[in-house]
Amino acid sequence: MRMSCFLRPLLPAFVLFLAHPSLAFPLQMEGARLQVAAAVSPPTIAIPAGSKVAVALTRAVWAKTAKAGDPLYLQTIFPVTAADHVGIPAGTYVEGVIDSIVQPTRKTSRAEIGVHFTKIIFANGYTIVLSGPDAHSAGGTSGSATSEKAPSIGPDGAPDTGLETTLSLVTVQVSQNNDILLDNGSQIEMTLEAPLVLDASRVAQAIPLSQAPKPGQFKPATLCRPIAGDPGSPGTPDTVIPGTPGTPPTVISSGIEGVPDTVIPGTPGTPPTVIPGMPGTPSTPDTVCPAPPLVVSSTPETLTVKQNPSAPQAAKK
To answer: Where are the stretches annotated Disordered (predicted)?
Structure first.
């Protein structure tokens, strides 16, 4: 009786001890699974400097109204990979700003547009700020969109807080008669000036949501429409109404000597009547639209703008 009373308080502890190994086994399996997943999927994806990102314009650049400071809206048309991982899927949005414009002339049918790219926006709202006033902010969340600055890799392998502005000079074959400088769907290349480090998990979430542009999706934005010319008309000839001939005088002999004959004057003839015809109309040529703009090249500009949020250190004496 006393022994049972002594063992009764120890019974729950004994039961818990027996159950402990069975509880620890699933936890060990879960930890091993997470370690394997972390080894398979890297935490970051580093796209090296010099990588080219093929993008297409989703909004045209108009010849008469385009100016420095205007935004550019683009979309990637081909995925960018790094170390067998998709870093930037096709269909990712890209924002840029026009820095300068050189319009075509009568002698030179080419335009030069200097641009710099400011943001990469993934389909899930994951946003990388490449340059601009928000490049050094800590990032914020608005709905599902999060703005984060893109760290680069310094010479010692550590993340560099300075960002390189991604610049490009786009050369376009376009005439002075074109109403647009860059049409919808115009393809240019964005060359990364610095390594781009991306959150692998955020990129993985964006891949199934990304939709690459479909063939024929971009419609020409030009307002020019070809107009068929007029062949003209030959006109109508003059209409001539013939006149009437005159009649000679009629002489009636009197038959009496010394009495003159009676002369009845004839009637004069009428001239022909001419009704002028209708003059012809001249022909007009066809109205032909100029050839659409053609991107000849999009090369990185030699100027590299280094943005560093830290204050410059005083020179060592």
So the answer is: 137-160
In tens, the pLDDT along 229-273 reads: 888 888 899 899 998 888 888 888 877 887 888 888 888 889 999
* Residue tagged 């700003």 (tokens): 97
**45, 155, 99, 219 alpha-carbon torsion, rounded to 10°:** -20
Residues of the domain holding 95:
44-218+292-302
Q: What is the pLDDT of residues 54-87, one digit of tens each?
A: 999 999 999 999 999 999 999 999 999 998 999 9
Q: How far is CA 59 from CA 124, 126, 139, 258, 316, in A?
A: 22, 22, 27, 113, 50
Asked if the structure places residue 239 within a domain, the reply is: no
Q: What is the pTM of this model?
A: 0.62
Whether 314 is in a domain gets the answer: no
Residue 240 lies in a domain: no
Number of Cβ within 10 Å of residue 180's Cβ equals 23
